[in-house]
Specification:
Layout (H helix, E strand, L loop, with lengths): L1 H12 L30 E5 L3 E2 L4 E8 L7 E8 L8 E3 L5 E6 L2 E8 L7 E7 L9 E10 L2 E7 L4 E2 L21 E5 L12 E7 L6 E8 L3 E7 L8 E7 L5 E7 L7 E3 L4 E9 L3 E8 L4 E2 L2 E2 L4 E9 L12 E4 L4 E2 L15 H27 L8 E2 L2 E2 H28 L6 H21 L9 H31 L6 H37 L1
Parallel strand pairs: 2-11
Antiparallel strand pairs: 1-3, 3-8, 4-7, 4-9, 5-8, 6-7, 9-10, 12-13, 13-14, 14-20, 15-16, 15-23, 16-17, 17-18, 19-20, 21-22, 23-24, 23-25, 26-27
């Protein structure tokens, strides 16, 4: 039993022997059971090779032990004086060290790989290239043994000497569009000085395309990104992201998009003269100079023609970007060395998507509605007159509803062949329910019992209920679909017209129902008289 307890204790005190300590990067305190940090002066030091820094500077940091002392584990990070959030990124070449994520960002922490004895660790720290910066200090935790460790050992303060007002111009300089800059915006040719709903990017390249001055502007809760692509679909695109970090400050990142998943963040590379402005908490404006070669399909290319992309969306509390809520792509490739060309936005909704919407509108606001009205209120018209032993009302009802189901199936196939994926949200869910119920309805009708069967009422009620459900779901799907279109319209007229049409149709049903009840009462009264 004593041996078992001893082994358990060993498991506790060495739970971070592999150095994977991201979970405690905020407190920097090892989880060594009941042991607490030492309050005496640590026999270890943290030193930097410089006393000042500015944006993008690289600082060499040394962790040293005094003669006769060694440490088994450690954690190193940089923080602004008085802050509890890590800042900047590290690089290490030491085989005894590894990089870890902290505060939702990669390479923010340096830690040990094993509990072997160490005397010296060297790491290189790179300062952020944007954001509100101030004086920093390096902090480290040293673990001598499982029960003996020091937390928050500090280096000397490094004074910030950069330009704290790294603000971009209030708006991009779009008067130069068509003269010295290739510009792309949505809505097309919108003016960010007058329209806060304008999403804008501009690229000014040198003659050999070795240097680009890039500007981006747009409204978003988290980030605005621009991209260079070989096609109009996301995936294998060279992108730059201007977004909020975990502290709410704007930062510029370089990445390559991977399509349906979050982009892969790359080293910022040769990017300088970064200027950022955040207005009203959600209007993002960034500009910078990049000497990075544009790389698409994971390889550098020499062409100067690309589709231009703008995307915007939210970020989480750690500063990681989430799926975009707005995306705009140029209608043609833009030659970055030909500012005179006019770059326009591609149609937000291609013809195949519009065809999907039209077919659904025809199905459930025209043919489907007429078919339901005929079945409920016009059975008495031309009664006992028809074709092939069936009344005219029945033939009309079946034909119109068959047309509605066929058009719904075609619309369903069209949109899925275009998207090739599940887009999320309420609209596709509603559409799938409509499609499923639309297929169930004719199948159930094909196996209905005879009109005079004692259980025919079960079919009648089920048929009516499913029809009502389809109608309600279809109307909801149409409204949510139109809402997607309305994101690109200012007056919202489509939803208003649709609302009026639904109200008019509902009024027709009410009046017809009242008329039907009145006729039944009149017939009943006439029967009593005679």
């Amino acid at each position: 039993m004593f041996l078992y307890v001893l082994l358990c204790c060993v498991g506790v005190v060495h739970c971070y022997g592999n150095g994977l300590v991201s979970s405690v990067c905020g407190s920097m305190t090892p989880n060594h059971g009941s042991n607490s940090a030492q309050t005496s002066t640590a026999p270890f030091t943290v030193t930097a090779d410089n006393t000042t820094f500015k944006e993008g500077d690289q600082i060499t940091v040394l962790l040293n032990s005094q003669p006769g002392d060694q440490f088994e584990g450690f954690m190193l990070q940089a923080r602004q004086v008085g802050s509890t959030t890590s800042i900047g990124t590290f690089n290490v070449a030491d085989s005894n060290a590894q990089l870890l994520s902290c505060d939702g960002a990669a390479s923010r922490v340096v830690s040990h790989k094993s509990n072997t004895k160490k005397s010296v660790i060297q790491a290189k720290w790179t300062a952020p290239t944007s954001g509100q910066l101030s004086d920093i200090e390096f902090r480290a935790t040293f673990v001598k043994t499982a029960s003996t460790f020091w937390v928050g050992v500090k280096s000397s303060t490094l004074a910030y000497t950069g330009t704290s007002a790294t603000a971009a111009p209030t708006v991009p300089s779009n008067p130069d569009c068509g003269k010295t800059k290739v510009c792309f915006s949505h809505p097309s040719s919108c003016d960010p000085t007058a329209n806060t709903g304008c999403y804008f990017m501009a690229v000014q390249t040198s003659s050999n395309q070795s240097k680009m001055r890039i500007e981006m502007f747009g409204q978003a809760e988290g980030y605005v990104a621009i991209g260079f692509s070989d096609d109009q679909e996301m995936g294998n695109d060279d992108i730059y992201i201007c977004g909020k970090d975990s502290s709410g400050n704007l930062q510029v990142q370089h990445a390559i998009s991977t399509g349906k998943t979050a982009p892969t963040i790359l080293s910022l590379g040769n990017v300088t003269d970064i200027k950022t402005t955040l207005m009203n908490g959600n209007t993002i404006n960034c500009s910078f100079t990049s000497r990075n070669a544009i790389s698409t399909r994971s390889r550098a290319t020499s062409t100067s023609e690309y589709y231009l992309m703008i995307a915007a969306g939210p970020s989480n509390s750690q500063g990681n970007i989430q799926i975009h809520t707005n995306k705009y792509v140029s209608s043609t490739k833009a030659n970055l060395q030909d500012p005179s060309q006019v770059v326009t936005s591609a149609e937000e909704f291609p013809a195949i998507v519009k065809a999907h919407g039209c077919l659904m509108l025809i199905s459930w606001m025209t043919t489907g509605s007429i078919g339901m009205l005929i079945a409920r209120y016009l059975k008495g018209v031309a009664k006992d007159h028809g074709c092939c032993g069936k009344d005219f009302w029945f033939m009309a009802h079946v034909s119109l509803m068959a047309l509605s189901v066929t058009a719904t199936a075609i619309a369903f196939i069209l949109v899925f062949s275009y998207a090739r994926d599940w887009s999320g949200g309420a609209h596709p869910v509603l559409g799938c329910l409509v499609m499923i119920l639309s297929l169930i309805q004719p199948i159930a009708a094909a196996f209905r019992c005879e009109p005079n069967h004692e259980r025919r009422f079960v079919f009648n009620w089920a048929h009516s209920f499913i029809a009502l459900a389809i109608k309600g779901l279809a109307v909801a799907a149409i409204f949510t679909g139109l809402a997607l279109f309305e994101e690109y319209e200012e007056d919202g007229w489509m939803l208003k017209v649709m609302g009026g049409f639904v109200a008019w149709e509902a009024l027709i049903y009410v009046l017809q129902d009242l008329n039907l009840r009145a006729k039944k009462k009149g017939n009943a009264a006439f029967t009593k008289l005679f």
